[in-house]
Design goal:
By secondary structure, this protein is of the alpha/beta class. It has two domains: 171 residues, 3-Layer(aba) Sandwich (Rossmann fold); 86 residues, UDP-galactose 4-epimerase, domain 1. The protein is built from eleven helices and twelve strands.
């Protein structure tokens, strides 16, 4: 079975690769920087170096693939993030059609059903494009990822967790490893057909006030959630070295999250994952704060 995996060094892609190898599969991994892969992964995988923006590379590397894991990485230095997402979605669609790939697992996002003019909405439009191929497609829609908290590391050291989202707005939070577990399970399952959506909501819905309390308990320091205005957030991100277009997209994303209704699909047995925020913070955020 040939299973092709993109972003094999990322938080989710690396987990997918690990589980496929543990299941006895030799995955084909597409990497821009293969040197970032561990020696163990290199030995157990077929590593192809290239860029997902290169249509010839994508078509050749996915030839004869039985299954494809497609994740579109975010480039906050880009001047056209929404356009980048659309173009990489088209790359996947072309590969699926021309190579007749049997099954594709696409990492979309919670809130993609809104199809608004944000990064999440752009992923929803990629869902539509992939569905147009008529192939078997699973769209995974995880909510917030725990690893987003690494972007707040310096604030957390100061005892605050800053957001533009209202502090009483609850949403799902996920460990990327749990998302990778689900993706790998579907890639290994050759029995499913059709076009499907699977939400991934984590173990429980949390407000930013909840998140601040839980991570504070896990790392052994008091942390308070603080809602700031978009202008204050913009200034802070620009001062941190982010470029204007990326800042604008992040603010639009937060605005969309704040205004969003209940997710579709909603929480249930299938969409609930096991790893708690507290356990993840203790294992990952606590050591990072000690460095």
């Amino acid at each position: 079975m040939k299973i092709v995996v993109t972003t094999p060094t990322g938080n989710i892609g690396s987990r997918v690769v690990q589980l496929l190898i543990q299941a006895g599969i030799r995955p084909t991994v597409l990497a821009r920087k293969p040197e970032r892969l561990s020696s163990a992964v290199i030995a157990a995988s077929d590593v192809l170096q290239g860029d997902l923006t290169d249509q010839d590379f994508v078509l050749e590397s996915t030839r004869d693939a039985d299954a494809l894991f497609w994740l579109i990485p975010s480039d906050y230095d880009s001047d056209d993030m929404l356009g980048d997402i659309a173009r990489l979605g088209e790359q996947a669609a072309q590969a699926i059609q021309k190579n007749r790939i049997g099954r594709t697992v696409f990492l979309s996002s919670g809130g993609a059903e809104r199809r608004d003019e944000t990064l999440i909405g752009a992923l929803g439009k990629v869902e539509d494009r992939l569905n147009e191929t008529g192939a078997n497609i699973l769209h995974l829609r995880p909510d917030y990822l725990f690893t987003n908290l690494f972007m707040n590391l310096e604030e957390i050291r100061q005892g605050i967790l800053v957001t533009t989202v209202p502090l009483d707005k609850a949403t799902g939070w996920n460990d990327p490893r749990d998302v990778g577990d689900i993706a790998a399970t579907w890639l290994l399952n050759s029995q499913w057909t059709g076009q499907r959506i699977q939400a991934i909501h984590g173990p429980e819905d949390l407000t930013f006030a909840d998140v601040a309390r839980i991570l504070g308990e896990a790392v052994g320091r008091e942390v308070q959630a603080l809602q700031v205005s978009e202008e204050e957030a913009r200034t802070a991100m620009l001062d941190a070295g982010m470029r204007g277009p990326g800042v604008d997209e992040l603010l639009a994303l937060s605005r969309s999250v704040a205004a969003g209704d209940e997710p579709d699909p909603g929480r249930g047995f299938v969409s609930t994952t096991p790893t708690t925020l507290g356990a993840w913070c203790y294992a990952n955020l606590r050591p990072a704060l000690q460095n």
